[in-house]
Amino acid sequence: MVRRNDQRRAALVDAAIEVLAREGARGMTFRAVDTEAGVPVGTASNYFASRDDLFTQAGARVYERLRPDEATVARHRTAARDRETYVELMRELVGRVSSFRTGYLALLELRLEATRRPALRKVLTERVRADVDANIAHHEESGLPGDAMAVKLLILALNWLIVEQLTLPDVFTEAERERLVTAAVERIVTAEDTP
Amino acid sequence: MVRRNDQRRAALVDAAIEVLAREGARGMTFRAVDTEAGVPVGTASNYFASRDDLFTQAGARVYERLRPDEATVARHRTAARDRETYVELMRELVGRVSSFRTGYLALLELRLEATRRPALRKVLTERVRADVDANIAHHEESGLPGDAMAVKLLILALNWLIVEQLTLPDVFTEAERERLVTAAVERIVTAEDTP
To answer: pTM for this one?
Structure first.
């Protein structure tokens, strides 16, 4: 019974992500989530204490679904530790994040909603900071060139590149976006920092 | 009479920016804008053909209000053409944009709304691309070091830094944000491109 409840809960959280992306934070009501998940009205309100609770769980779930799969992780483990690999990794990252379009748009909606909800802001702040720190730690273990500052600068540049692609996809062409990813790594990951 | 109408229109557009930032795109109704502007209900609907029209004008107005003032432009004109000046300019830019908090948040709301409104997406795409091109042209005239790629990479990195500051201000400390601006210029504006 517990497992079935867990599956139902996960399906509701996934439905909340779709509603957030499509209707915005204001449109993410329990009723809209029930409809999206195809469950009886009243179901979501049995699973989540409040909209804040559902916002928080939707945010956490996007991060969970954005993790690379086993095959990707294994491929990275055997690649050379140079800037070419770094470029490949960042291309793969941008592709992975932007292909979960509704998840990334839902995160942007949550960020804007966080300006109105202190509880959500607190949880998202901890989540995003933990993600920055995990990226830095992961980089240090990886043996790839560059320092923590490069990791943070790449997070900045690539996030906005993804915002641009998902909200106004014709501002940059696809070729321009590819050149931007390559140039970002080549300039930000400076040769002096190469171990 | 024309002038008075222009002032009234500008006041309504400014009110729309505040409503967008506070309530989100869904909350930006003609009625909410009338209330925010302190004018009789029905006024906004006399000035704007549709919500799309008001969204578009609000976006254009944010860009207009983000322009540097005369004193800032004059100060830039006399500064040395080196990377230190570039860092100062980018600090000033980040400070100027993030201090118009509601304007920047309104632009983010408009970007998300553009995923749902093709007409808004078209207008915003043209506006944002024109802004990128204007930044590149302005840089080329300025005699500052660096190339067009550097201008675009700085636009990416600094936009997300502003998103971070305005939506989740505790992810980075103020000192960390300052170091990020400095490092972004120092790494992205490469020495080889210095004219």
So the answer is: 0.95
